[in-house]
Write a structure and sequence with these properties.
Layout lengths: L3 H28 L5 H28 L33 H19 L9 H24 L3 H5 L7 H19 L12 H20 L7 H29 L4 H15 L8 H25 L7 H19 L2 H4 L9 H32 L6 H6 L1 H6 L10
Helix pairs in contact: 1-2, 1-3, 1-7, 2-3, 2-4, 3-4, 3-6, 4-6, 4-13, 6-11, 6-13, 7-8, 7-9, 8-9, 8-10, 9-10, 9-11, 10-11, 11-13
Length: about 400
């Protein structure tokens, strides 16, 4: 029998995660240059359509149907075949319909590849991005969802990832790094954010949506759900203030963009651990996120990697730190799994190995895929198009009337 409270909760969480995609569009759109606002927002919003079609057709089935102990599932539930609309989801004591679980996971699939777009802002063609969007999900995202959350090989080995440390942030972050190395530097890197208020709106929507992202990943309403919710907010807050303080000390002024970037770093970092660690650990994880992700961004700048919106430093490194933190701070009293501090060194090693596998595979496959796509259609825009901006050149639209900004 359907539990109306649990069903309503999962519908709310699904809606919150959906809101993160436009939130990311605003966040990236505000950070990008004035001539590339619509280009980056288009790459984000188009995933709502393309990924939904893919998920219903084959994505859900490949992630959650068959393939026990393997790398990928099967197509038994293609186009949701064999799943009645009133079937109850078996993973949460049959308290809500399977369809809402399908929709919830679909929102993760929509968001994950769009995280990558901030790395190569104003440098790739829209046609190549659409091909990238399809095949990156097929060969990176779907396998890792299945391996970790769908009963695949990493799940059987004992790897845990509460809401997407390796499944979402590590894979997207290291794919972003591969993309940056492949497409090279922008011709004009002096491109300040066009609208910091727009960045603030995006950050607010992401932070708000992240409650559904993390708390909803318990797939039930219980004490772990509330802990994951609070851990999410605490880690984001500690990370935001840590980043602010470090930047203030180093540059002499407290930066608003730094405050918001630190918050997103904290949100990404707590994601894999939110439902497995006590509240005090979330505070430490937040401080680690704010400091280590800040260092990663400075390291990236020193090496000259033109990751325009710091996707690797915030999401890739954040997801990595989060997974390792889970291996260290997981508590059996919270959700049945002990970490390194409680004496389970084996679990810690599993988390580290999973991160290495995710980072290396996502990096190598993404780079190779971009090489192949370039044989089909040019990946990089011309110097002239980049200079003119993707909005006008590729989409024939502009975000603002001339001379407004």
């Amino acid at each position: 029998m359907i539990d109306t409270g649990s069903t309503a909760f999962m519908i709310l969480c699904t809606s919150l995660v959906m809101l993160m995609t436009p939130g990311l569009a605003f966040f990236y759109g505000g950070l990008s240059g004035r001539r590339n606002i619509l280009g980056i927002m288009m790459q984000t919003f188009v995933s709502l359509g393309v990924t939904t079609i893919m998920w219903v057709a084959i994505g859900y089935s490949l992630c959650f149907s068959g393939g026990e102990g393997g790398i990928i599932g099967n197509l038994n539930h293609a186009f949701l075949n064999g799943i009645p609309f009133n079937e109850l989801f078996s993973g949460a004591d049959g308290k809500y319909p399977t369809y809402i679980f399908i929709a919830y996971q679909m929102m993760f699939a929509i968001l994950t590849p769009t995280l990558i777009t901030g790395a190569f802002v104003n440098r790739i063609t829209f046609k190549s991005y659409l091909i990238f969007l399809v095949f990156w999900q097929l060969f990176v995202y779907y396998p890792f969802v299945h391996m970790v959350w769908g009963g695949g090989i990493l799940a059987e080995w004992g790897v845990l990832d509460f809401a997407g440390g390796v499944v979402v942030h590590v894979t997207a972050g290291f794919a972003a790094l591969a993309s940056v190395i492949y497409v090279g530097k922008r011709h004009d890197r002096q491109s300040p954010p066009n609208s910091i208020p727009l960045v603030a709106i995006g950050t607010g929507l992401l932070w708000f949506g992240w409650y559904g992202f993390n708390a909803g990943s318990e797939l039930a309403v219980n004490s772990v759900t509330t802990l994951a919710f609070l851990n999410t907010d605490v880690a984001a807050s500690f990370a935001a203030i840590t980043w602010l303080i470090i930047e203030w000390i180093r540059e002499g002024k407290p930066k608003f963009v730094g405050l918001m970037t630190g918050a997103v770093a904290g949100l990404a970092t707590i994601t894999p651990a939110a439902g497995f660690v006590p509240l005090w650990a979330a505070m430490i994880i937040g401080i680690a996120a704010g400091s280590i992700c800040y260092i990663a961004v400075q390291f990236k700048n020193k090496l000259g990697w033109d990751d325009a919106l710091d996707v690797w430093g915030v999401h890739g490194v954040g997801g990595l730190v989060g997974m390792i933190s889970l291996g260290i701070f997981a508590s059996a009293a919270v959700n049945g799994q002990s970490g390194l501090i409680e004496g389970d060194g084996g679990f810690f090693i599993k988390e580290v190995v999973a991160v290495v596998i995710g980072a290396v595979y996502a990096f190598l496959f993404t780079y190779l895929m971009l090489v192949i796509i370039n044989f089909i259609t040019p990946v990089k825009v011309s110097k002239e198009v980049e200079k003119a901006g993707l909005d006008k050149s590729l989409h024939g639209e502009v975000a603002y009337d001339e001379y407004v900004l």
